[in-house]
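Request: Have a read of the protein record below and say how the chain folds.
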Amino acid sequence: DAGNILKPLLARGEVHVIQGQIEHAINDYKKATDKAVEETDRNNARFILATLYEAFNKPNNAIDEYLKLMDASYNNEKVYINLANIYSKDGLIESSIDTLNKGRSIIGSSLLMDEELAKFYIRADEPQKALELTKDELTQVRCYMDMNDNEKAYSLMQSLRGKYEKNAKYHSLLAQYYYQMGDYQNAFNEVDEHAKLEPNSPVTYQMRALIYEKQGDKFSAHVNWAKFHYSRGNNDIGMNEYMTAYQIDSSNIELVTTIADILDNEDKNHSVEFYEQLLSLNPNSKRALQKLAEFRVRIGDYNEALDYMDKLKELDPKNPYVNENYAKIKDKIEN
């Protein structure tokens, strides 16, 4: 009996999902789609299979399953929304738009699909089409700004202030408005409000970088682009931005410390150059003294290590690294 085969497969798949064993769950739901007799059962299993492929970072497999569901006129808006989002990650915005429009024609429009479609129209630089779809007030503001109707955008934002005062997106839109109007101080103020509500958001660093660029502050722009890329996991690009900022101003203690600390986790030998630079800028930097002492110990230069530790001991008599290692290093030198 097909039902008796299907139920254990689905149950086992659910257990594997709960246990985080996604690959095993994928195999269970693949078997379920093959064994299912009823189209509804097959489509339901296929939908879960598609979402699991997404979770397991197999977007092409997920696309194949979502397309099969579309061919089967599966009545679930998430099929079209999920597929559109996969396309968008590869920059295929037109495919995202086509997918959602197809969904609206097959199963009818919905608030969720309309809002998703509006976002993609904004990304495709078609704000008028987005405005016709969206019911979201902040998305409407964005549309007006993209249509260069800044007066209407600002008027709407002012009317919404009480409602969205604690909304990060609201402040990012106000920042964008002031940026477009060339009012950079107010733009910074709104970016700061955004940062309070969403700490360490890539959007915060991106907006600051753009404002600094307009002000001609290349150093601060590169620092904020670095933070933007690190917050998105693009570490190589982020380090390139930090290094570009360093070429502009190699005496900035905060920047030198940041670079040194990042490299200390990625390339300890390379970090030494920046800890030495930090020590030259701040001879009382306990962090630089300890890191340079650690490096000298690693390469067997105990005399130099002890010099750093003597200075560190003078600045911080209770320093754990000194207390744990000073006698050992001194003993190595004497013996």
